[in-house]
Amino acid sequence: MARKYNMLQIGGENYAHHFSDRKDVNWVHQPFNSLADVEEIEALMKKQKSFEFVFVQAPYSETLIQVFRLVSLPYNTYVDHQFWNAAFEAEDIVRARMIRPFKYEDEAERLDKLLSLAFSGQYGDHISSRNAVISQSFKGDYYYEGQHTLVMTGDFGDDFQPILSWSMYLYNDSNRVNQFWAEYTATDGVELSYTLRFYETADMPELKATYVLEGDLLKKPFNIPRKDYDAYILVSAKAKGRGTLRVGNLHKRWTRIEYGEFILGGERFHDEARGEFIHYFDPGDLKPPLNVYFSGYRTAEGFEGFYIMRNLKAPFILFGDPRLEGGGFYLGGETYENQIKKVIQDKLDWLGFKDDDLILSGLSMGSFGALYYGAQLNPAAVVVGKPLVNIGDIADNMRLIRPEDFGTSLDILLESEKALDQDAIQRLNNKFWDTLKQSDISNTVFAVAYMENDDYDLTAYQNLLPVLSRQHARVMSRSIPGRHNDDTPTIASWFTNFYHMIMESRFGRVRHERKKSI
């Protein structure tokens, strides 16, 4: 049985009838007129434990703040903007739980937003330009650069002309807002237009909706208006002008509209090449350290590590990399990499923490992000499992050690170094090692759980240890027999054990310390 999305309305006219046909939603209305209502909410929370979404239609009062302490989790509570005022903003609980106003133009938009937010989970996927069929009318040159980029050069015409249609479809899920994002770059003078056609059934007897995206509509993700039916999305593209187009992945993901990407509170960034990363910040108990988790390789887009990090009680940031097939190892141009560091520094500043009130962490692909940015940010510790650091070598290993496996490493090599030869392999390796060797990590603890027979990066730990030792870093390690993916549960166990040891020894956080209310 599918889990229901639990929504609580406090005050106002009961909206439950608007959700009567949504079997996946549990809408609970609680009047808010007296202290007796507070007692009812207390009893409700003992039974329900938590709500994913809380909608408040009541003016500021000390009693309402008391209710927030019962029902609010980070990003789950929204106050109707008609009741929002500066008194809310002055409350510590509002800051700590990221309570925000719920804005709308009219009652119809208010209801549409509530309906659009009423779903569980997160999801995102993409289709590659390898699935694109090139129009026979295009007379220019084209070739594939790696697995995810189609390069087209020529005269596309003075007006928009068809150039591509995708043989695979995206899927529009009902009762939520689906978001479309296209990866592409174009030289000056070339413009691109995408057309999205919606069909309710696979045999496509009837066109249900069409959206044409060009110009300003392509500068940010396009939110497809919520529909009450599932639909197949066929995508085609047109271009005009003269020059070169580089066409990449087409992404579709569930969005929480202006309240979050993938999940409530989720955010995204894209650089000038339209390469993205996603991030989420949870204030936790507002006490050091700030824990940062870089997601591993995942073909399904979205956040990873949420419950592991939340269970540590401390503030945390999650990072995800939705580029290529399952991630680009958090490497990018100057804008991309600087923005990752800025997100971390901004949250340290928001919390009022020192620069070293910070732990960076990750597993597998995420270990690269933790180590690479850890060498640049002066953290108290870096905690990693199944470390991957020699990305050039991982790509080189495809020839004999892992044939036809993990082609993403070749895409990263090609994207970063514009070549696949031995010099390019070494340059990509050196991007990591030069960063590490030039850093001051003498006050940083490195906790590493690694596989003894890792078949992706064969010598990662053996290469790391002497460099860390020469720079007077403290190293904690644990080896586990097997190849890269042979024993992830044991790696994950040591990952969390290392976290608890460091948080207790460095920050005085006892593992089973009773949670204190704010």
From TrEMBL:
GO terms for biological process: protein transport. It comes from the Bacteria. Pfam families: Asp2. InterPro entries: AB_hydrolase_fold, Asp2. NCBIfam families: acc_sec_asp2 (TIGR03712). This is Accessory Sec system protein Asp2.
